[in-house]
Amino acid sequence: MSANGAPPPADDARERICELCRLFYDKGWASGTGGGMSIKQGDTIYMAPSGVQKERIQPGEIFELDSQGAVVTGPSHLKLSQCAPLFMAAYTLRGAGAVLHSHSLNAMLATVLDESASEFRITCLEMIKGIKGHGYHDHLVVPIIENTAHECDLADDLTAAIKAYPKAAAVLVRRHGVYVWGDSWVQAKTQAECLDYLFEAAVRMKQLGIDWTKPPLVLGSDVAVMGGKKRKLENGEAAAAGVGVGVEQQVVSDRGMGG
Ligand SMILES: CSCCC(=O)C(=O)COP(=O)(O)O
Ligand SMILES: [Zn+2]
Questions:
Q1: Which of 31, 37, 103, 153 is 20 to 30 A (C-alpha) from 5?
Q2: Strands 177-182 and 98-102, how do they pair?
Q3: ipTM (interface pTM)
Q4: 103 in a labelled binding site
Q5: Per-domain residue ranges for the chain?
Q6: Cβ density class 35-65: b for 16+ within 10 Å, e for less
Q7: CA–CA separation, 46 and 71 (whole Å)
Q8: What is the DSSP letter of 80?
């Protein structure tokens, strides 16, 4: 919305998609024509074209779709993104205001930390708070679906994952990347940034031998190891961390973590 409450002109969405594609390219999320971006404004959906260098897209090359996903206008020399049915799933099932697809290396690596896992899990990191409906102590869960030869063939599995994980703001695609949505392009971008941080954190924590899926090490009912040092938990911290209420935690033994 503009300052006077009127809806912004459509050019805003077209220009915003171009701007975000450049930004995502700079982050390594859209290199080699990978990744994609879409914004919904009113009942109109805007999407980037397929198979082009995403960082060089011009506003006139953005496709316009109706709320059912039918193309209204678009450049005749370009094709609509292969991500279109996946973007539409987030608009239809989640009422999203924007959806993006990232080929971030962090997202891809997060899907191979355990190749048999059907979900990515992480807890007790500040950036979890950047994901709608989540707090520091929550277990953030992102479903992982298997990749297919063609992007558009992911749509059925992505739809099923969105339905099965009502709290999720994203779906990971094994050895490929991630789809992230939000109520607005600002929220989609923010959540994508927080998720990317969390994916990278998990990859690095694995390298350091730290379990990213469990709360910090707990030695007793009110003592934890944080940053390599023992620390007495403050009033309420132990309860919030789930001490004594059966929540799984990393336990220190003579052999160190996880023993
Ligand atoms: C080297 S990119 C392969 C296609 C892909 O995974 C992707 O995200 C881009 O799809 P689009 O149709 O939007 O170019
Ligand atoms: Zn892709």
A1: 37
A2: antiparallel
A3: 0.98
A4: yes
A5: 10-207, 218-255
A6: bbbbbbbeeebbbbbbebebbebebebbbbb
A7: 10
A8: B
- Helices 155-164 and 84-94 cross at an angle (nearest 10°) of 20
13: pLDDT confidence band, cut at 50, 70 and 90?
very high
Statement: residue 248 has pLDDT above 50: no
Contact between 39 and 185 (Cβ < 8 Å): yes
152 is in an annotated binding site: no
Beta bridge partners of 223: 232
Q: Which of 55, 64, 126, 146 is catalytic?
A: 126
| CATH classification number, 10-207, choose in 3.40.50.150, 3.40.50.20, 3.30.70.790, 3.40.225.10 | 3.40.225.10
Which helix (H) or strand (E) covers residue 116, if one does? none
Q: Are 162 and 94 in contact (CB under 8 A)?
A: yes
Phi (first) and psi of residue 231, to 5 degrees: -140, 135
